[in-house]
């Protein structure tokens, strides 16, 4: 409720160890082996199905998505018909759509970054990733970067996610939820209204895109192709598109923001990244996904950012199959809800040496000190993430404006991170 759940779970794991009871029938783990046991395929073991937590992520009662579908068979069918949208060929064909928005952002930063008070990069990263996912999911961007301000739908999505955070609290403690729902009734009603707005606007965008009969290389084109054999309704396309918007924009923006914060807090790391990027290219125009993705130190900075600040900070609960099963060496009865805490696992002193220190070197060469497999962040959008950062650092020198910001102290989590402002000044390289 207060937005500090990841930090509280980390405290509990540091105090009580790698397995902690977080609700009457729910256990949280913080080890690399728990990732494999809970989420990975295990020979001769029934899969751990999604818990009722995912019911709170339904786009609409009759339209489950790749995220909210709990039936393994139906989920596998969705993965099959959506896979073409994320194939290497498809992602490569989408690069021009991404580059257009990225270049617009880089150009905008020249003027915005001159301001003595700096410009808020958390805002800009949200704008550009939202524009990109709008282009890929609905056939048009939202014009956020061009306008330099948040599209109204970003606010609606954020409020809709807050409803999910409340639903998760109610799920864990049903006896308390009755009282809480009465106390917070006006707030819940308001969030429900925003959620309905989100559903309606998503549906309007999908139907508008379907009516254009476009052959653009975007996500929706692939779903339209698949609907003929998979009988996908307009509402279900909207549900998948809603997932893409949240998973494909907010998570990438979060990692870019975190990378920028830690680069500015660690000048030696920023200098090393500048050297790698600026020595790899002679012209800005040479930077694209194919040339940026192989940059080793850039990737290590991104990996470390996702370790210290996982873009999806909440746990992904599963249910132990009937008959019971072991997780991290513990035999658990069937029906027990289990999850690996992304934040606790990646920030645990049992898994990482000096976990609060930002050290990209962890991800380069041999590392016999850290359990790197304990960090398993959600990662969608590597291509745009590395391209955006490479282009910004190639063109500009940057400096922080407000040294008082503490990224972890000032962050809150309600389903996704609510990040502090990150004011930065930019100067174009000579």
UniProtKB/TrEMBL annotation:
* The protein's name: Benzoate 4-monooxygenase cytochrome p450
Which interval of the chain is the signal sequence? none
What organism does the record attribute this protein to? Colletotrichum fructicola (strain Nara gc5) (Anthracnose fungus)
- Keyword Chloroplast in annotation: no
* Record flagged with keyword NADP: no
Q: Give the molecular function GO annotations.
A: heme binding; iron ion binding; monooxygenase activity; oxidoreductase activity, acting on paired donors, with incorporation or reduction of molecular oxygen
**One of the Pfam families matching this protein, by short name:** p450
User: Which keywords describe this protein according to UniProt?
Assistant: Heme, Iron, Metal-binding, Monooxygenase, Oxidoreductase
Instruction: Cite the CDD domains for this sequence.
Output: CYP60B-like (cd11058)
Superkingdom of the source species:
Eukaryota
